[in-house]
Amino acid sequence: MNKVKNANYWIEKGKQMTAERQRRIDRTKQWKFDTIATHGLYDLTEALNSNNGSIMEPVYMSPAQAYHDSGEMEAALAYQMPTWCYSRIANPSTFFLEETTALLEAYQSGVEASCVATSSGMSAIRTATDPFLVKDDSLPPPNFVASAKVYGGSFQQFWIRRRKEQGIEVRWVTNPLDLNEWESKIDEGTRFVYGEFPSNPSVALFDIEKVAEIAHAHTIPLIVDSTCASPALTRPLEFGADIVVQSASKVLSASGTSIVGLLTARKNIVSKIGTDEMKANFAIWAKLWPYRDNGPALHPMAAIMTLNDMRSLRMRIAQMSNTAIKVSEYLASHPKVGRVYYPGLENYEAYNLAKKYMKLVDGTENMFGYMLLAEINEKNDGDTANTRRFYDNLDMIWRATDLGRVKTVATLNAISTHQQQGEEGRKLASIKPNAVRIAVGIEHADDIIADLEKALSTVK
Ligand SMILES: *Cc1c(COP(=O)(O)O)cnc(C)c1O
Fold first, then answer.
1. Does domain 313-456 have CATH number 1.25.40.10?
2. Ligand 1 pocket check for 226: Cβ under 6 Å
3. How far apart are CA 116 and CA 284, in angstroms?
């Protein structure tokens, strides 16, 4: 029998474990993006000491952690030593995904960040925004300011769940390029500012740095959903954002195995609401308290499958971006296509912002991601006959509501992702009925263009 230790012993041991973890973080931080994505904090020592030498991070399909004795349990559940305890709070497999993500989002920025993984992108948004919308008698009733050009699911979460069901005022910014519009909508009751970079599906941008400055001048945080850029192109924390959310269901896990969300926050966020503990380390605070109580944990298998795909993120983004620009140029010059929205096109309205914020990590080259929006020519405004003809004649390209996949996918947003927000909501978000979102995959550009060509030949 092992000798029973008391809680103080385990608290001391916990300090050593924390120091050892920090040593690994410091070492990993010295590496380049691809190396961090490949190894994260999982190294030979960890493999040999805890995992039978497994060179890949094991999937811990276990709900709970066993403790040596009551002293360890007591110290662990007081959060006085590293623990995972129960898979609704934490899990060792999920931990590797979270640590890698935090390092990638804060890559070479000097920002210290931490991450909590969630069961979906939507639950990451919920986990990021809930803590700022709480009752506080010293402040006016809560409102928040958000770009209207957001993912359909986010629009619904804000407009139906927040406003209609909870009575929280949502103030839409209809032109996210207009800094005055952001500023003019903030008042004493505003709890946070929210934007998507670039937005899904209209690939709208906003000036992250300037909007962060505006938010901070009002002592509120900027939350950015940068799913459609990914940390291989844009890392909003570097430009002053306080919290970044990712739907890791998209390009981070490009082979498409799981629904996963990631919330990464800088240490010491700006907020007029919340405890010092919350502001000091938002993601870990969220994980230990509201996340534990609300239960948006993901399955450890999903965490490891996401991590596996993330290792090749930069290379995939490079390939996809190179193809997406070719596809955009092809479509932009096609007589049956009207406007094409892609941040890499020189006539794109926010091309200057795209050049500032979208660069392939560890290089100097601008790259602009995998997503573009094209408007198919119709006889009259509001018609969709040609758009449907084009869409229904795609052969290799998938008709689905998906993006960031290794396989090219096309979506008619007005009848899918943005159907439920209605005509008025679509107008707010500038979603036209003849708009097709194309999320370019990793196939050869020639084959993608050939498929588009064939489908466009059916347009009258
Ligand atoms: C898909 C998506 C979400 C929602 O993510 P899920 O993982 O599907 O819940 C949020 N934001 C953006 C920009 C998205 O594309």
1. no
2. no
3. 7
DSSP per residue, 182-197: HHHT--TTEEEEEEES
Q: What's 84-310's CATH class?
A: alpha beta
Pocket of ligand 1 contains residue 120 by CB under 6 Å:
yes
| Alpha-carbon gap, residue 212 to 81, rounded angstroms | 34
Structure confidence at residue 62 (pLDDT): 96
The yes-or-no answer to whether 84-310 and 313-456 have a common fold is: no
Please, how many CA atoms are within 13 Å of residue 326, restricted to the half-sphere of its CB?
18
Quote the pTM value: 0.96
Quote the pLDDT of residue 427: 80
pLDDT-based confidence at 1, cuts 50/70/90?
A: low
Q: d(Cα 127, Cα 117) in Å, to the nearest integer?
A: 10
What 3-state DSSP class applies to 378? Answer: coil
Integer Cα distance of 134 and 198 in angstroms: 28
**For residue 318, with 0-12 CB atoms within 10 Å meaning exposed, 13-18 middle and 19 or more buried, which class applies?**
middle
- What is the per-residue pLDDT across 57-74, written as a single tens digit (0 to 9) for each? 999 999 999 999 999 999
Q: Torsion angle of alpha carbons 422, 423, 428, 431, nearest 10°?
A: 100
User: 401 CA distance to ligand 1 centroid (A)?
Assistant: 11
Cβ of residue 225 lying under 6 Å from some atom of ligand 1:
yes
- How many angstroms is it from 43 CA to the middle of ligand 1? 31
**Encoded tokens for 224:** 């950015």
- In angstroms, the CA 221 to CA 419 distance is 30
Q: What is the pLDDT of residue 226?
A: 97
Q: How far apart are CA 364 and CA 351, in angstroms?
A: 16
Q: How many alpha carbons fall within 13 Å on the CB side of residue 98?
A: 25
Kindly state the tokens that stand for 396. Answer: 């290799």
Q: What backbone torsions phi and psi does residue 440 show, to the nearest 5 degrees?
A: -75, 135
**What are the structural domain ranges in the chain?**
84-310, 313-456
Burial class (CB in 10 A: 0-12, 13-18, 19+), 268: middle
Burial of residue 325 (CB within 10 Å: 0-12, 13-18, 19+) is buried
For residues 249, 252, 255 and 259, what is the CA-based torsion angle, rounded to 10 degrees? -20
